[in-house]
Amino acid sequence: MSQAELTREVARRVFASEFNDSTYTFKESDDERAPNYALLPTGDRANRVFAVGTLTETEDVGEDSEYWRGRVVDPTGTFFVYAGQYQPEAASVLRDTEPPAYVSVVGKPRTFETEDGTVNVSVRPETISIVDEATRDRWVVETAERTLDRIEEFETWQDEQEAPESGSTAPTNEYAQMARERYDSPVENYRRDVIQALESLENVEDAEATA
Amino acid sequence: MSDVRQHADDIHDQFSDHIDVSVDDVEDRLTTLVDEYKVPIDEARRSVTNHYLEEAGLEREDLAGGSSEAAEIEDVDEPEQWIDLTAKVIELWEPRSDSVAQVGLLGDPTGTIKFTKWAKSDLPTLDEGGVYQLRNVVTDEYEGRYSVKLNSTTVIEELDEELEVGDDTSEIEGALVDMQSGSGLIKRCPKEDCTRVLQNGRCNEHGEVEGEFDLRIKAVVDDGIDAHEVIFDKDATENLTGISLEEAKDMAMDALDTTVVADEIREMVVGTYYRIEGPTFGRYVLADDVEELDGPADAEQLLIKARSM
User: Fold this and answer.
1) How far is CA B156 from the centre of its chain?
2) Which stretches does UniProt call biased (Polar residues) (chain A) (predicted)?
């Protein structure tokens, strides 16, 4: 039956600082068409992301054909978005949009290793749309919430690992385990980014000032 | 298994507790009617069932439904299952074909489902608001939506009781991250009781037809945890985009291309946050009530939590 079709991958919410640290990618089966995942340092996998930020710069970096790079900035860092001939709609948005502008990007994480061994993480967009400030703010709050949820689960798992009396030996958080094996940066860093992102929202500052 | 054999099996199951009869006997009787006398299979089944009812000295109501099983509406997730439902007739719709006696919506505490009652089945009339036990109905599926068909073997019993109808509406909140193909200005098959979307002017069932224009959006709304497929019908699409079907047709006419409508809609809706409420049909949520989320989200509580972690 047609119901057997592949389930659609969720678009994860992740701030730029964490996204750019997601340098390790993996597949979960040997199938040629198996989805590719980036490992988020807070302990989850991402085959697709949804990000909203300010498009601050666009540049055609292609040599033979058009290849557009856009910088999309959120409160924690910059997403690098690359669109070429195989992403014609996204490429035309980057070509036609005059920065600065709020944009939302749905796309896939891609990694690229430079000659000095650094791994750069970028977004290969499926769609880029012009959005308003309210949408950007909502995304910041939503992404803060999802990130805190991941950190919370990571820490719960970590506490269990460090408490020998719990008797639990089975890993209960596969991706947290993977993240601890693959990455050095502590999840605490991302909690600080969440705080910084939330504090950057105007309505929050106002509330604090009057408190 | 052949069609006749399947029916024979069903009939045999219904009577195996009451009389000593083999599946082969049942099949022989059915085959005689169908092959020699050219009786339609439904009618043949009815006739053979009646024969055994008489032989067993039973009334139609005495049959426990045989192979059909008592089920709840939310359990329907496979076509061609024989089930019994206790349900309320929520709505009756106008049949679009003479072959359909009644069509509408049934509900039970777990959800709602479309039903079709064939004219040739010669069953009693269902009243809107009535609660019935429906034994031996068959499930069907079309594009992920399930329905039940009442057929000539179905036993309808009106119950003198109220039935709470469950709310199977979903509420989702998230970003509209994708608009799928088959959105925008589309053409549907104009044949009675067929609303299939045409591909290059062709209906899967009826071949090349003069299609009727319609407007819809098939979208993915994603909250970062789950991705939901949502369908906006003509009204919902008009409300969401402010583009009416007539305007959409004009746009397509001017551009000599129907895809301009989808392009325009995509620009408006993708990347926007919505709250959507509506009934679920298989893997789809039908957008009945749509609200764009453009107010400020509450960051205070989250900030307090983040600081205290």
Assistant:
1) 20
2) 166-175
**Chain B within 8 Å of A73 (Cβ-Cβ)?**
no
Listed by number, the residues of chain B in 256-275 with a beta carbon closer than 8 Å to a beta carbon of chain A are 266-267, 270-273
Residue A162, sorted as left (phi over 0), alpha (psi -120 to 50) or beta, turns out to be: alpha
Report the pLDDT value the prediction gives residue A1, as an integer from 0 to 100: 33
List the single range of B19-28, B111-120, B208-217, B281-290 with lowest mean pLDDT.
B281-290
Query: What one-letter code names the amino acid at B183?
Result: S
Neighbours of A206 (CB within 10 A): 10
CB A57 within 8 A of CB A103: no
For domain B169-292, give its CATH number from 2.40.30.110, 1.10.10.1800, 2.40.50.140, 2.60.40.1120: 2.40.50.140
> Are B148 and B82 in contact, with CB atoms under 8 Å apart?
no
Cα end-to-end distance, chain B, whole Å: 62
Chain B: closest CA distance from residue A114 (Å):
30
Write the pLDDT tens digit of every residue in A7-48: 789 999 999 999 999 999 999 988 888 899 999 999 999 999
User: In chain A, what are the domains?
Assistant: 1-202 (2.40.50.140)
For residue B264, give the chain A residue with the closest CA.
Answer: A129
Contacting residues of B for A151, CB less than 8 Å apart: 309
| Cα B232 to Cα B242: distance, rounded to the nearest angstrom | 13
Residue of B141, B176, B177 best to disrupt the A interface, most CBs of A under 10 A: B177
pLDDT of residue A60: 95
| Tens of pLDDT, residues B176-223 | 999 999 999 999 998 877 888 888 889 888 889 988 999 999 999 999
Of the CA atoms within 13 Å of residue A44, those in its CB half-sphere come to 23
Q: Is B139 exposed, middle or buried (0-12, 13-18, 19+ CB in 10 A)?
A: buried
Confirm whether B69-159 and B169-292 share one CATH topology.
yes
Task: Give the ipTM of the model, two decimals please.
Answer: 0.88
Residues of chain A above pLDDT 90, percent? 77
What is the distance between the alpha carbons of residues B210 and B128, in angstroms, rounded to a whole number?
35
B101 in helix, strand or coil? strand
Burial of B258 (C-beta count, 10 Å sphere; 0-12/13-18/19+) = middle
CA dist A20 → A30, A46, A81, A162, B294 (Å): 26, 12, 12, 28, 28
Residues of B in contact with A146 (CB under 8 A): 224-225
Strand-pair category, A11-12 with A48-60: parallel
CA distance A166 to B188: 61
* Residue A134 in contact with partner chain B when CB distance is under 8 A: yes
- A135 touches B at CB < 8 Å: yes
